[in-house]
Structures
1.
Amino acid sequence: MEWLQKMNEALDYLEEHLEGDPDLEQAARRAGCSGYHFQRIFSYLAGMPLGEYLRRRKMTRAALDLQGGAKVLDTALRYGYDSPTAFSRAFQKLHGVSPSAARRPGAVLKSYPPIRFQLSIKGVTEMEFRMEQRGAFRVIGLKTPMTRILEENHGKIPAFWAKTAADGRIPELVSRMDPALTGILGISACPPCGEWTYYIAAASSAEAPEGMEALEIAAGTWAVFPGKGAMPQAIQELERRIFTEWLPSSGWEYADNPDIERYLTPDPRGDVSFEVWLPIRRKSEK
């Protein structure tokens, strides 16, 4: 599949640039998507965060270098660690021995080979979806910055939801939402260049109240997947299936519009009904 081939080309790039700090945006361009989307797809396909995979590959290569006679300091610098202490901590966490001990004959170490993606045919459980073509629309809401390392946001975003609910801001959004697109929206706006930002918002033409901001979302196509269950497990499981089962064989690829979570239950923190909106385009579109 062309889509998986692009993902593997991105992994080839990362493997060639393990020394130092690989440029995740460069890898993402080879996969035909943004750095945010690339990290999301990788985590669901591989079952681990991209950062953890890169650490494992670096420490695998570092162990081989050390057993080949390389010095600990030189090896730390080679794989992007400015501090030998930080390198030693990461190395010991993976291998169970210090870098200096790894240089001794007979040291038992671990090896994590490079990942390659391939299509696995499952399809035992149906997936319901619809295509949603929308013109440009406007949302208003609260926002919080995200980091460029996806796993660092996994705790930050739920905390942002909790604070927004505790501050009583969700009813404000409900009172201003347009009837053409109801529901509280979780929007990941992650352009290839620029700040990654998460919004708790509502589609609205009303003026943004104090402390909130407006965001214009470009016209586009979304694949929309409905779901229901306890949060955040239910939406994470649905996203996993979208990326591992639907997207690789769909004939579509990621577009540059935001990812949208649409919550149809007023307080999206418990057992809720929701939709995952995946921005997509035909592979021939640019």
2.
Amino acid sequence: MNRSLAAVATLLVLSFALLGETDADVDPLSSDACGPQPLKSDGSAWVCAFDDEFDGTELDRTRWVPQTTHFSTGTPEAHACYVDDPQNVSVSGGTLNLTVRTLGAPVPCLSDPALAPSPYTSGSVSTYHLFSQQYGRFEARVKVEATSDPGLQETFWLWPDDRVATGEVWPLAGEIDVLESYSVNPDLGIPFLHYSGNDNGGPIPGTNTAWDCIAPRGAYNTWTLEWSPTELKVEVNARTCLVNTSGDPAFQKPYIVAFTQALGTTGNVYDGRAPLPATLSVDYVHVWK
């Protein structure tokens, strides 16, 4: 290696160390569309399969679909209707912004007609029928509204691609919540895996969820899922907080990627104190295979 390449490599390694990564995690001389390539446990590099840096001025609809049907969050008394509106779903300043806000008067909840009209609307996007992947490394750098008042919930999650036939329904069909953030827990992010009998037993820390993933609201945190046929590992800011080795059939098929800004439910119901509008900001999302 010549001196100039060595200097560049050293600077990159130092930069990644400051970000919580080390030269054991990333090859500083190898990059692709997702940037410097993380290394697998066998020393080979992950290869970029999907990338959005949100550097434009509007949502890239070749990658993302705003949610407008079959989805709402909150309670019957305080729920957000999902709409495709630039005040709820936007891209600016290098981020994807999903915002829950208050309207002047209640409107019909077209995303869930069974619900009563609501004065709250919000944004949710996914790669529905545009991109899905089975196994790999999924990562996003996200920030949620800084508050400890109840009522806000945000999610970086994966959902089974419905183009792949399955005889199961949720939760047996599976769901991978890399991050669920609740404003009543302002210093935590909570991963949660939905599958088979574990849902019948509720949350089981260390198996299908974790309650010690430090991720303060109001600051950017980097969430990573590494998923193989035998293991799902969730990290926040390069710290492992959940490892699941069930190898459950629910996790043996392609999943889409989604982000949601929500109003909260049980134990985190919106009562008017949490600040609105409130925004989930996504700096980037990378998927490797």
3.
Amino acid sequence: MNLKEQIENYKPYNEQEEKDKEIMLKYMNTFDDVLTRDNEFGHFTASSWAVNKERTKVLFVYHNIYKSWTWSGGHADGESDLLQTAIRELKEETGVKHIKPVTDDIFSLEIACVHGHVRREKYVASHVHLNLTYLLEVDENDTLTIQEDENSGVKWVKLEDIAKESSEPWMIEKVFNKLNEKLKNYQ
């Protein structure tokens, strides 16, 4: 199943996902470069809700651009298999080796605003990430490492402590709380 079909078949969890799914599909019908950063208005990214086996903790990185503890993820960069993008980014950003998709299906979707910032000494204008999130299980005993050009910390966070760790109110309220709700209903 191709990316567009996966999104078309995705059952939205709430009003936010319903609207974001609609916009993602319109965007895919309008632009032909949605998988690369060449589309400076918006492009696809993949994130992981990387939980331990007991599903009591999530693996977070301290993201240098956002100056916040947050999930792992990154740009599709031309890859249409966004599950593999999420796994690749999780490995790169945290150093974990033992990753198992709980499901191959999209776990969540959201459109996230990215404010203008400097990356590798170049200005990147404000844009949106058309983000797909995947539920991944990670061995909590894996050695964690930092990807210094993107993050300055990696740690396990108890699900109930996410709001204390992240400094992004919208992400906490609209994304992380939703992911935790879905995780409880998923078990």
